Amino acid sequence: MAATGLRMGVVGGSIAGCAMAIAGTRAGADVTVYERSDGELQDRGLGIVVPPALHGELVALGYLDAAMPTAPVTEHVWLTRSPGRGRTREIARQPSPVTPCNWGRLWQSLRENAGGARHHRGRPVVSVERAAAGGALVRTAAGEAVYDIVVGADGHRSLTRQAIAPGLRPSPAGYLVWRGTIPMSVVAGAPRQLELLRKAWITLGFPGGHGIFYLIPGVAGTDPDDRLLAYAIYFRGPTGAGDPAPHVREIAEEHFPDEWADIVARGEHASLVCHPVTDLHAPRAADPPFVLAGDAAGITRPHTASGAVKALQDALCLEGALGACASPAEALLRYGTERTAEGSRLVELGRRLGAAQVERTPDWGAMGQAEVDAWFRAALAGTKSYLYEG
């Protein structure tokens, strides 16, 4: 193994950082993780989805616990508002098996399985640089250490990325995403919507954007009724520091079917966040002794549902490269070749999906099954996406 006896530092203790720590320890490295936060992250309850095959692989390899709750569904249903009415109109259905997860529960499972690494909580990294004698120097307020490999898993503002691509910053897409979770008790008053959500994830199209809705496990417990409704609404709107909630509710009231508008307008949210949509692609995902993972390596627009997925695949790729290559440098170069190309593909896919679903939305009211199928084939332009493999 290329990693046996090597010292590996991981900058960042979120999903990407924990997954890379597992990859390093499984490959035989001595791993240290620097976590900016000094608290637990499992209460961050926003939703993510992963491909069922990837979830199964991660469980089989010990990255995730089999007992971690998920909320799998098999279909993707497209909805819109009937013209001139407040009723829901279904316009298409497509097979799309996905495994929705609670971000916090996924992080907790990874964190527990990364116990073979040392974790320094509440110790943000202030600089990362090449060491004069080889390797890389990681500096914190408490001191510094040299590692044979340094993994940048420090998010979209990555310090580690600056060592490979100085000055690279995310590019704005020109629109926003409003994400939230709503307790199941609130959704219980909408039985038809709840019945649909137990089987499918939903896209609700409106002029100038769309909303995504799906169920995820709750923060605690494994009861199927202990779930949250996760949603994301993409729209063009005010990009200043003001509260976007009134604008989002205005969109819902004007363009959503009445029952879906009522859900979004409710004030009982478990979590809420709104931010501009951006993307970024690092020219290299690795430059020995540095390797980038997750958002540090590239930010894709959320339409691809690949943020956490890519971070998890990054970890599997690193473990495989370290186990197969004769030297750490060779392993990182192999990783960089594979993951740089994948990051570029996902960024371009995200841009195409954003153009189709936000920047140049179709006339949703005129769409049917055949029109949606043809329109989305054109948007994918031959690029694979696990969301639309059906």
TrEMBL record:
Residues 10-348 form the FAD-binding domain. Pfam families: FAD_binding_3. The keyword Flavoprotein applies. It comes from the Bacteria. Its cofactor is FAD. Coiled coil: none annotated. Keywords: FAD, Flavoprotein, Monooxygenase, Oxidoreductase. This is 2-polyprenyl-6-methoxyphenol hydroxylase-like FAD-dependent oxidoreductase. It comes from Streptomyces clavifer. The lineage of its organism: Bacteria, Bacillati, Actinomycetota, Actinomycetes, Kitasatosporales.
